[in-house]
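F.,

This is the one I mentioned.
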């Protein structure tokens, strides 16, 4: 800074004001300082500035995988929302979804310069007593039932699943089969619980649960073994629904004339499936925005928040659902 001041013929205080973007510097002087910075290769030390002010303007994001639609779109929304607020993000993927892996991630972020942490959590690990949060760092969690301990933001998984099952029952189907996501996923469990509750409340039989891993391939495998008596199936995400559609087509079972299919997520491609997929829309952009708003509010107020914020979901009806065949 002293070198820049000498070259520009100004005080170090003026250099500081220019580098920090403060107003009140004559434009000619500002340009002279900026030219001197460029000629000398000077860059303000943001880390030192952060230590001085106690603010790093960086949010840490912990997640297990970038292979699922929900994680990718939520992360994208978090990055966009953080950028609009003048914050960067530090991404810390956890290689193995284990307690030790999560503990290590929190420990590493505690050593990094972050003001808050957003955790995109898919498995039941936050309840572990081995997980300790970095002191004085605020946390928001996505996709968890840990609202008693953290601030949680999630889509209304239960409401969306209920709407999907009721839609199929309202069309006249006697019952609805379900292709569930992984057993260790909070979202998958909530969708499964809602599916079962709607059937039981309607006094309908509850078919045997089918299992997938969110992938189209697992949906295809489930579709190959889908019983002939099935006339309606609710898949826990659109990718598995895509695999189902392929398997049903290969078996000569028409959608929706023979079998109705509903997905979950409303990915961009869902309207281009054959047939266009009826699905539950999740507003990932709103989830990401509320995560950033929540963690920044805690940072600015220097106060920890608790509880669950639910972002509404909605059913999008397209061409993959219809009344069951006559006599079924």
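My design for it:
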């Amino acid at each position: 800074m002293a070198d820049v001041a000498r070259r520009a013929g100004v005080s170090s205080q003026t250099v500081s004001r220019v580098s920090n973007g403060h107003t009140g510097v004559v434009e000619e002087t500002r340009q002279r300082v900026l030219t001197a910075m460029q000629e000398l290769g000077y860059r303000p030390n943001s880390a030192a500035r952060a230590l001085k002010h106690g603010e790093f303007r960086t949010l840490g994001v912990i997640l297990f995988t970038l292979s699922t639609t929900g994680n990718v779109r939520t992360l994208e929304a978090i990055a966009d929302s953080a950028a609009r607020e003048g914050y960067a993000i530090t991404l810390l993927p956890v290689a193995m979804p284990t307690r030790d892996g999560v503990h290590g991630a929190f420990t590493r972020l505690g050593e990094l310069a972050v003001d808050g942490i957003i955790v995109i959590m898919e498995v039941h690990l936050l309840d572990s007593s081995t997980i300790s949060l970095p002191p004085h760092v605020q946390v928001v969690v996505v996709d968890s039932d840990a609202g008693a301990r953290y601030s949680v933001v999630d889509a209304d998984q239960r409401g969306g699943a209920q709407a999907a099952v009721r839609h199929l029952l309202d069309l006249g189907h006697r019952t609805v089969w379900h292709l569930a996501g992984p057993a260790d996923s909070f979202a998958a469990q909530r969708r499964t619980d809602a599916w079962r509750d709607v059937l039981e409340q309607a006094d309908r039989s509850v078919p045997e649960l089918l299992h997938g891993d969110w992938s189209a391939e697992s949906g295809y495998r489930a579709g190959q073994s889908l019983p002939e008596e099935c006339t309606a199936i609710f898949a826990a995400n659109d990718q598995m629904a895509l695999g189902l559609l392929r398997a049903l087509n290969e078996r000569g079972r028409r959608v929706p004339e023979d079998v109705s299919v509903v997905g979950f997520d409303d990915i961009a491609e869902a309207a281009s499936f054959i047939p266009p997929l009826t699905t539950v829309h999740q507003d990932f952009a709103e989830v990401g925005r509320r995560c950033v708003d929540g963690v920044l509010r805690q940072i600015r107020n220097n106060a920890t928040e608790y509880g669950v914020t639910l972002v509404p979901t909605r059913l999008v009806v397209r061409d993959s659902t219809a009344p069951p065949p006559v006599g079924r």
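The longest strand covers residues 58-63.

Talk soon.
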